[in-house]
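Re: that backbone. Tokens:
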């Protein structure tokens, strides 16, 4: 392809992407109040927009004619198949058990298009998992399952238009809720509001040796409130915080790992969390506001743990302070553009309005406020870029949710979900602690290659029922799975947050990923607290006293475990002192989880031994 042809392609495809992305955004916003089509047709429109937008993006990224022609064909095929299903919808609904040959072919094509789009967005793993389940469905009769023909299989996974297939509940959540919140977060980025988070982080981190790293933690936490994804969080904040940490004396890998670990918590930080949180609200049949409340303190404890880690690392490494200039003008200008729309969203959900209405008015208020002052008034290009970015991210999540639909359908139809659930119960021998550990490792392994929402949802189908049967409340079990699913961005071999951070820092990816897991590992103990004690999740029956005791004990436990991990408490610790720190931390967490005062006495005694010795021998300097 010549340079002239390349420029022409970029211009034409860029225009097409803009038209489709803006059309998708306007349609989704209008659908909040103007119901232009039926519920099923709405899902068709959303999936059609998502597929076409992803194929157009693939054309934009391609350099060779065969690939370009292939993606053009796939975009046209998407339009044709969606039109066919639209025209024949009534017939398919009333005669779903008698789908014709053409219907089956179209159903197969829709599946193939979704799998290809998922591969382009997230890699090969999730399509392979779903394909393996389709093959299992065909041969499940030989393994004690139902006897399914190809016709029955295709009908089950994408021609019933029910609650548990490609067009089911998960796609509804993506189309009605997730897209709008992702779009809101992208508009915040497009309008430059995220600069406000960095300045707040710089203020909080100015006065300590760990200032640059603390700035990364705080700005990542604030950005996570609106982004809900790890990789964009790293890209936004890491471009500023990683060079700052390197200037302060942090090694490249350490600086990148701190940013990746801090950004990983963005998916569990309300109000705009990872896509799995919206799915969780639907699965538990509770308002999203309750999911936000349940997530708040586990998320804060996660960032607290990372902050303790980076501060101890700075003291241990004798990192120098950097007096980063804070732009107060940005805080004054952009602060209201962040806080007011956020308050609007939370207030509307508190008043009982659906999350989609909250996201709609949050976006409208954001745009109106940005126009009030000349300094914050965006150019048309900024609005369009935010719109395009939001639609692209929403389309990718929509495709992931569509790919998960057949998994749910097949797990239910073949009984495989129940079989795996029984296996978890059998492997654990009925021991709830071992069952939780098995589920944790299963989710982390799934998270190595699939999106967070996929890792969480697969766990929700196959493992959570077994955990609930062993005595864990559904809210605790779902939050446990979601918490671990959210950190797939850190774990090698494919930790996207670590990849982005290592690129910014020019560091070794594998070392960065391993260090980021190490920084976040202590926070992985938090789910084992709320799995047995619902006070951290603010569940019913929580009193102010019990909540404060649990929160304090958990925070103390995280501090002591991080002291053991880093090996520093006012001075470098010996091996025996680190063991005492671990003992103190684990027993603090055991007390928070079980409420047994013997654990508290052990924790205080072992922690006191370290503190007294450190205080006597070392000059304390923060």
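Recovered sequence:
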């Amino acid at each position: 392809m010549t340079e002239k042809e390349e420029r022409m392609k970029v211009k034409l495809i860029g225009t097409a992407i803009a038209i489709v992305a803006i059309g998708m955004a306007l349609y989704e916003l209008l659908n909040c109040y103007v119901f232009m089509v039926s519920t099923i047709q709405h899902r068709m429109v959303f999936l059609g927009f998502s597929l076409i937008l992803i194929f157009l993006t693939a054309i934009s990224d391609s350099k060779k004619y065969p690939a370009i022609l292939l993606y053009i064909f796939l975009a046209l095929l998407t339009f044709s198949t969606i039109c066919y299903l639209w025209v024949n919808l009534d017939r398919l609904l009333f005669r779903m058990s008698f789908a014709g040959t053409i219907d089956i072919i179209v159903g197969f094509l829709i599946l193939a298009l979704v799998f290809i789009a998922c591969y382009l967005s997230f890699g090969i793993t999730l399509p392979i998992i779903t394909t393996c389940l389709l093959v299992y469905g065909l041969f499940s009769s030989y393994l004690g399952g139902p006897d399914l023909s190809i016709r029955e299989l295709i009908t089950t996974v994408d021609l019933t238009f029910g609650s548990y297939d490609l067009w089911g509940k998960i796609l509804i959540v993506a189309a009605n809720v997730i897209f709008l919140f992702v779009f809101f977060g992208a508009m915040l980025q497009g309008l430059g509001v995220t600069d406000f988070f960095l300045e707040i982080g710089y203020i909080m981190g100015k006065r300590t040796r760990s200032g640059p790293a603390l700035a990364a933690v705080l700005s990542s936490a604030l950005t996570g409130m609106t982004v809900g994804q790890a990789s964009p969080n790293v890209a936004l904040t890491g471009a500023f915080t990683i060079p700052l940490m390197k200037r302060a004396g942090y090694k490249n890998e350490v600086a990148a790992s701190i940013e990746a670990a801090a950004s990983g918590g963005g998916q569990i930080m309300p109000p705009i969390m990872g896509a799995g949180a919206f799915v969780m609200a639907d699965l538990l049949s509770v308002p999203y506001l309750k999911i936000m409340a349940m997530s708040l303190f586990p998320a804060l404890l996660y960032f607290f743990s990372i902050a303790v880690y980076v501060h101890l690392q700075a003291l241990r490494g004798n990192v120098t302070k950097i007096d980063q200039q804070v732009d107060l003008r940005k805080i004054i200008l952009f602060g209201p553009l962040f806080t007011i729309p956020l308050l609007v969203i939370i207030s509307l959900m508190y008043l009982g309005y659906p999350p989609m209405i909250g996201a709609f008015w949050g976006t409208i208020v954001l745009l109106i406020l940005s126009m009030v002052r000349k300094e914050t008034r965006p150019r048309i290009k900024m609005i369009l870029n935010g719109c395009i970015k939001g639609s692209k991210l929403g389309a990718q999540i929509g495709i992931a949710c569509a790919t998960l639909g057949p998994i749910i359908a097949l797990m239910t139809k073949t009984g495989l979900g129940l079989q795996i659930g029984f296996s978890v119960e059998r492997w654990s021998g009925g021991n709830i602690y071992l069952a939780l550990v098995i589920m944790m490792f299963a989710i982390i392994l799934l998270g190595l290659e699939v999106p967070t929402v996929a890792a969480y949802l697969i766990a929700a189908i196959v493992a959570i029922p077994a955990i609930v049967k062993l005595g864990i409340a559904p809210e605790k079990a779902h939050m446990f799975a979601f918490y671990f699913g959210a950190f797939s961005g850190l774990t090698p071999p494919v930790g996207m947050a670590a990849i982005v951070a290592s690129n910014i820092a020019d560091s070794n990816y594998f070392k960065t990923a391993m260090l980021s897991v190490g920084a976040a590992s202590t926070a992985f103990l938090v789910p084992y607290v709320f799995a047995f004690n619902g006070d951290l999740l603010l569940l019913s029956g929580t009193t102010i006293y019990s909540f404060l005791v649990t929160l304090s004990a958990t925070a103390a436990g995280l501090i002591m475990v991080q002291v053991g991990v880093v090996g520093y408490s006012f001075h470098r610790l010996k091996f025996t002192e680190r063991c005492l720190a671990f003992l103190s931390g684990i027993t603090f967490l055991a007390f928070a989880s079980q409420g047994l005062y013997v654990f508290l006495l052990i924790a205080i005694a072992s922690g006191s031994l370290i503190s007294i010795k450190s205080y006597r021998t070392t000059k304390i300097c923060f």
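The radius of gyration is 25 Å. The chain has 28 helices and no strands.
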